[in-house]
Structures
1.
Amino acid sequence: MTRALLSVSDKTGLVPFAQKLIELGYELVSTGGTHRVLADAGLSVTSIDDVTGFPEMLDGRVKTLHPRVHAGLLARRDLPEHMAKLSEFDITPIDMVVVNLYPFKSTIQKEGVTEAEAIENIDIGGPSMLRSAAKNFAAVLPIVDPSDYDIVIEKLQEKTIDGDFRKLVAAKVFQHTAAYDALIANYLTKTEFPQSLTLPYDKFDDMRYGENPHQAAAVYKTALPETYSVLNAEILHGKQLSYNNIRDADAALRIISEFEDTTVVTVKHMNPAGIGQGDTVEAAWDNAFAADDISIFGGIVALNREVDVATAEKMHAIFLEIIIAPSFTPEAYEILAAKKNLRLLTLPFSTDVPQKLEVTSVLGGLVVQERDLLSENQADFEVVSQAQPTAEQLEAMVFAQKAVKHVKSNAIVVARQGQTLGIGAGQPNRIDSVVMSIEKASQKPGFDTAVLASDAFFPMNDSVAYAAEHGIKAIVEPGGSIKDKDSIAKADELGIVLVFSGKRHFKH
């Protein structure tokens, strides 16, 4: 006798699959709701109660947790003593387990769900049967995914179930139960940094390649999807996003979430190329484009307002990889979709991004930290120079601080209110970033009113000196260097404003 035990929460494809098992000579054993569905479909099926000799009890919490089930699953067919023990207790071996689990994930995603409801949707018997079957995969075929039903039937019909396939489905079981348990652990865990970190992710897509063509890659989504994510954006037009597209688009979304006013962000290699604001989305685009009209070539654009025709026509005129916006007018979409390789994405924009932690891989491990969610304002600033900032300079400093936190260290941003003018990113020496940013900014209209922001303190006064000697009249930086007095003295000597924000914004 060949026996299959079926106990599924997701009934998709269940009846036709079970019918084909019967045709292949399987005796069906089932539990609760699964048994009712099969019996109502007219299939011959044995109740689990008749196998165990015990009724389901404790409101269904105990059904399959019984030696007649688990001995039937775990007995090694190649050990005579195991098979003799089954005979001694009149236990029939189980050759296939078809189980998917209580819907814990969908339960905790429901609005207003209580902890008691969540707890009742923690499956115990299902994972236990799956793990027993998967441990004994040499003899027992464990099936956890309804999408595998057809291939299983095909292989059974063709008698091509081999060791490799058995190992494949067993591994899938352990991946599934591990992710299931991780989701429960994270739901119950209130500690931000627990002793053991379990991170459930679901594969979103296989990628053509990674950062470079010789690198294989795949992308995974958090098990509980984040609404504000490029992985949840709707692709209206264009081909699959590449690894680099996703990283750059993610950077653009992080940056633009800082701003409530009408804003356009252009991104290249995960750094802002330009950030612009305006009374209209077209004016914001004009400022973002003017901030760096060279680096934007082949870049990413994020807009936090609907794209209109005027803005679409200007963006159409240059080569862009991706445009992300809350929406496009039909006319704007028609203009931009004329470019075959341009990706057009929509996503509801937000300044309140709930994902608090971020994870970065290192060789042999992960580092986990809170995202840099600090939002600064003028009340946080300390004016340390004799020269006092104007109201316009203070507003520009707040804007520049929002930008500099998203630039790779060592980071310098030269900006006026509503527009970056020059960005120096990722230089090993801070003075090099100062030079780069000022060189770019000094060629732009509005430089005479610009301020300079630094993501970290100046270790010596050379940056202050260079900035003042090249037209900068106000600087904001965290302070905290043992040589702060030298920077303050240099600012006073050269008659410029120096403000300490008190907060560092390193981004590696």
2.
Amino acid sequence: MEITDLTPAERRVWRAFPLDEVVDFREGAGDDADDDPEVGGSWGPERTIRAEVLRALLLSGPTRDGEVAGLKLIGARITGELRLKYGVVEHAVRLRSCHFERTPQLYGARLRVLVLSDSTLPELTAGALHTEGVLRMSRCRTTGPVRLAGAQIAGGLFLDGARLGTPDTRGEQPILQLNHAAIGADVQAKGLVAHGQIRLNEATVTGQVNLDDSELHVPGGTALHAENLSVGNDLHAMRLRAHGCLNVSGARVPRHLNLAYARLSHPGGQALRASSCAIGELWFREAAPIEGDVNLRRSQIDLLHIRPEVWPDRVRIDGLGYRSLAPHLPAEERLPLLEREKEGYLPASYEQLTTAYRAAGDEAAARTVQLAKLRRHRRTLPRYARAWGHLQDVTVGYGFRPLRAAGWLFALLLTGTLAFALHHPRPLKSGEAPDFNPVFYTLDLLLPIIGFGQEDAFAPHGGYQWFSYLLIVTGWILATTTAAGVSRSLSRQ
């Protein structure tokens, strides 16, 4: 393209390029409504640049010895299609507050730096893009998808305050495609508003992903699809508003997955699917009650910070492992969650909760969980087995309430002592029997092993004989259930 073909506006850009100077077409300081890129389609020729001019500049534009060339454009209307597909651009590309009439085609391009902050685009096609520095799209607005699948971004990706899609956007394809992308620093997307799915499958982020204060809208669908996402440290999503499923199955987040103050909503489906994940700390501090199922199957988490009221009515936690729970609450407040398991009774879930309480030094809570586990298991047994379980529960709490045995023993001892004190049994051999003692006679009947010589020397008759049989049988049952419960309790220590 000859320089003589350029318009006055394009000449300004052409002259500024070799010196990396800013060309600002805005009429005000940037806060004028007429400078809003959303109305950029009405801008006149005085701030209109053809995409073919920019392409020629970037691929073969003039340079000056001793200067670093670069494109630095603000407030321009860019007409035509900016085609840099597979192109190699040795200069920084900074197109701030610009209005693109057509979708930039950057698939497979190699750039130093790409800045599109505050600009308005129909879409962006930049799959397999390579940048040596950052890609900035802060406060960008698009009506269609941003395609960055397979991109290699050596610096960070910035999407703070961006608005992708519209409420009328249909879900034919994800609105932000970062699957298989490799980000050398952070993904900063605070305040992002996305009407469509964000896809991060198999993506690798060396730093952190920040979705604080973002809004994801895919009602009835998947708002975030990030299976096997690998993050260098944190995934922040504080105050996130998600209408649709968050799917982070298989994700690796070594430090924090922070959903504090978040609102997750996917009624009738899974609001959070985080199965087979490896997470340092999963935080739901002050989060709203989750609307929809939660799936944490087979995940490993060091710290799980969530209050009982945040959990939904149905969960899937088969194989979930965690070292500690926060905040520390009584076992009675944590146990109802295990009743919400979609697969029914899972012994391992009770064992996991027991382990967490023991790690916190709360042995009483651990025993409460074990007792609840046995009671839940009892409901799965046939009737005859349930009867034996009820007996162990009532007598000694399956061995986790040993003082109950002492209570039963004392009550029976008191009853027998009073009964036999009022009506002494007759001696079997007159003149040879020891003095009758109602306390030790009752103990002789109750305790199947220890003998005080009273039972062999005296024999009740009538109703008292049947009462003595009852004490003997009760003593054997009490001893058997106590031994079974204590044995079970010791085997778990």
